[in-house]
């Protein structure tokens, strides 16, 4: 079986044990997710970064279920949602106000959103991380305010607050030309987390906090040389990027986890959702003698005529 080189999460650790991390690269996954919707570029770019962020954070968690990242704000982009299962299945969608979005992109600096998409597009709000392992378990949720110019900065705040460890996150998304025909969306990211000092020792036999700090500062400096082009380059193997960044200190890679775009919506799930509402309320959504339910994630339509509704509410 050939090793995967794209649509993956690649865990790694520095040999000096100063830090561990993950890098994620999304090609077909992000292009499939965004291809289900005709989002304007600023919305698609934000959602692409959130897909990369969800993959990065989920890779650090031990769970059996679904991990969801949701950004909600009072700006033109009202909601961004991405979820990922332990099987690597990903999906996502965005909700936005088109008129407010056009206004935000207007004026003397129409491309200003690229440098500060969070305040300009999402506004004030929060970033929520939720782990759902099924009906018989308690859901875990962590929330942090949308503080910072970009989603990566908001993620920094969450990791520092929830795990009380230093961390650095880089995220990017954009259209890349030269892939098949025309251009395609890609997204990428890399996360570095400082490892706690648990008895690390030098050759002298002593563990010194200042040495730990120096190792961490050096790792962050090396990571900062990563470019957005490298994170989006389909031809650059993740191992090659990690080697370029950290070869002087040594870097160890572990098994990569594949990612795919897959929506969990089904006819049975939609029927279950309809049954949770009174029939009279559902029938108020009838258009042309049919009730149509559209999945916000993948855009699939589920149509129910009066006979179908009879069957839905018969049991």
Which key terms come to mind for this protein?
CBS domain Like, 29% strand, 11 helices, 6-stranded antiparallel beta sheet, single chain, globular, alpha+beta, 2 domains
Spans with pLDDT under 50 lasting ≥5 residues? none
Order of helices and strands: EEHHEEEHHEEHEEHHHEEEHHEEH
CATH class of the largest domain: Alpha Beta
User: How many strand segments?
Assistant: 14
Supply the helix-strand structural class. alpha+beta
CATH domain topology of the largest domain? Hsp33 domain
* CATH architecture descriptor name of the largest domain: 3-Layer(bab) Sandwich
CATH superfamily of the largest domain: Hsp33 domain
Number of domains: 2
Question: Which percent band covers the strand fraction?
Answer: 25-35%
Radius of gyration, in angstroms, nearest whole number: 22 Å
List the helices and strands and how they pair.
Layout: E1 8-14, E2 19-26, H1 28-35, H2 41-58, E3 66-73, E4 77-85, E5 89-96, H3 98-104, H4 117-122, E6 125-132, E7 140-145, H5 151-163, E8 167-177, E9 183-194, H6 209-223, H7 228-232, H8 238-246, E10 251-253, E11 257-258, E12 260-261, H9 267-275, H10 279-283, E13 291-294, E14 301-304, H11 306-312
Parallel strand pairs: 5-12
Antiparallel strand pairs: 1-2, 1-10, 1-11, 2-9, 3-4, 3-6, 4-5, 6-7, 8-9, 13-14
Provide an overview of this structure.
The protein is of the alpha+beta class and 315 residues long. It folds into 2 domains: 8-261, Hsp33 domain (3-Layer(bab) Sandwich), CATH 3.55.30; 267-312, CBS domain Like, CATH 3.90.1280. 32% of the residues lie in helices and 29% in strands. The protein is built from 11 helices and 14 strands. The protein has helices spanning 28-35, 41-58, 98-104, 117-122, 151-163, 209-223, 228-232, 238-246, 267-275, 279-283, 306-312, and strands at 8-14, 19-26, 66-73, 77-85, 89-96, 125-132, 140-145, 167-177, 183-194, 251-253, 257-258, 260-261, 291-294, 301-304. The strands form 3 sheets. Strands 1, 2, 8, 9, 10 and 11 form a 6-stranded antiparallel beta sheet that branches. A 6-stranded mixed beta sheet has the order 7-6-3-4-5-12. 35% of the residues are buried. The model has no long low-confidence stretch (mean pLDDT 89).
């Amino acid at each position: 079986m050939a090793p995967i080189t794209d649509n993956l999460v690649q865990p790694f650790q520095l040999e000096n044990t100063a830090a561990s991390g993950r890098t994620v690269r999304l090609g077909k996954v992000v292009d499939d997710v965004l291809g289900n919707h005709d989002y304007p570029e600023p919305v698609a770019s934000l959602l692409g970064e959130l897909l990369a962020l969800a993959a990065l954070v989920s890779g650090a968690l031990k769970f059996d279920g679904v991990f969801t990242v949701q950004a909600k704000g009072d700006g033109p982009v009202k909601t961004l949602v991405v979820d990922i299962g332990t099987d690597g299945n990903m999906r996502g969608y965005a909700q936005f106000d088109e008129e407010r979005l056009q206004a935000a992109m207007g004026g003397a600096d129409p491309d200003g959103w690229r440098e500060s998409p969070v305040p300009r597009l999402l506004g004030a709000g929060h970033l929520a991380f939720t782990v759902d392992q099924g009906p018989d378990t308690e859901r875990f949720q962590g929330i942090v305010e949308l503080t910072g110019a970009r989603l990566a900065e908001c993620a920094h705040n969450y990791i520092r607050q929830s795990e009380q460890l230093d961390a650095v996150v880089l995220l990017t998304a954009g259209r890349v030309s030269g892939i098949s025909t025309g251009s395609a969306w890609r997204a990428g990211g890399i996360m570095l987390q400082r490892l706690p000092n648990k008895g690390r020792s030098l050759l002298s036999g002593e563990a010194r906090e200042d040495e730990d700090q120096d190792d961490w500062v050096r790792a962050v400096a090396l990571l900062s040389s990563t470019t957005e082009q490298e994170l989006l380059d389909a031809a650059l193997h993740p191992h090659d990027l990690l080697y370029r960044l950290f070869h002087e200190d040594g870097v160890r890679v572990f098994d990569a986890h594949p990612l795919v775009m897959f929506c969990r919506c089904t006819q049975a799930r939609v029927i279950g959702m309809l049954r949770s509402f009174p029939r009279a309320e559902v029938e108020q959504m009838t258009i042309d003698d049919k009730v149509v339910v559209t999945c916000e994630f993948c855009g699939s339509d589920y149509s129910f005529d009066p006979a179908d509704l009879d069957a839905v509410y018969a049991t």
